[in-house]
Amino acid sequence: MSIHAKADGKTPLLATMPAMEWDGIGSCPMREVLDIIGDSWSLLTIINLQSGPRRFNVLRRMIEGISQRMLTVTLRSLEREGLITRTVKPTSPPEVTYALTEMGHSIAVPIGALGEWAINNRDHLRSARKAFDERADV
User: Fold this and answer.
1) Among candidates 104, 46, 105, 101, which has minimal Cα distance to 71?
2) Residues of the chain above pLDDT 70, percent
3) Three-state SS string across the chain, please?
4) Among 7, 10, 13, 68, which Cα is nearest to 41's?
5) Domain harbouring 95, CATH code
6) How distant is the alpha carbon of residue 80 from its chain centre?
7) Is the residue at 3 inside a domain?
8) Residue 52 falls inside a structural domain
9) Given a cut of 50, is residue 19 above it in pLDDT?
10) Comparing 6 with 129, which gets the higher pLDDT?
11) Does any domain span residue 37?
12) Domain total for the chain?
């Protein structure tokens, strides 16, 4: 089923999606995916691999605030889920690169749309938060 809004712009974007509920063989599909990519480090790692393979330290410099340990954990998790590949070249020292798989590239599309939404709405979110906090303080 398509998750795109109709041309009239009035149909909610998610109106044509199937219900997100327990499917009898596991958990809700949305919850399962959010458990994999729902943290900021996974999202930022996927975004930073969109333009091509990267070495560990390059990724670490690109993702502000991530520790070496957290990047290692994140990369292993994304590799386990089939979203990235890890390639080791037998050089001295070994050259290790990480790249998105085909499935990783496919999830990067909606993640990119979320990123665009965040850029376009950050000021609105900040204004709403500020207004709420001012009302809450009274």
Assistant:
1) 46
2) 80
3) CCCCCCCCCCCCCCCCCCCCCCCCCCCCHHHHHHHHHCCHHHHHHHHHHCCCCEEHHHHHHHCCCCCHHHHHHHHHHHHHCCCEEEEEECCCCCEEEEEECHHHHHHHHHHHHHHHHHHHHHHHHHHHHHHHHHHHHC
4) 68
5) 1.10.10.10
6) 15
7) no
8) yes
9) yes
10) 129
11) yes
12) 1
- Which amino acid, 14? L
Residue 11 located in a structural domain: no
Give the pair of three-digit tokens for residue 103.
Answer: 């499935």
Residue type for 12, please?
Answer: P
pLDDT given for residue 101 in this prediction: 97
β-bridge mates for residue 55, sequence order: 97
Amino acid at 32: E
Per the document, the length of the chain is: 138
Domain that holds residue 83: 29-137
Residue 138, pLDDT > 60, answer no
For residue 9, is pLDDT > 60? no
pTM: 0.72
49 close to 102: Cβ distance less than 8 angstroms: no
- Tell me how far apart the alpha carbons of residues 76 and 62 are, in angstroms, rounded to a whole number: 18
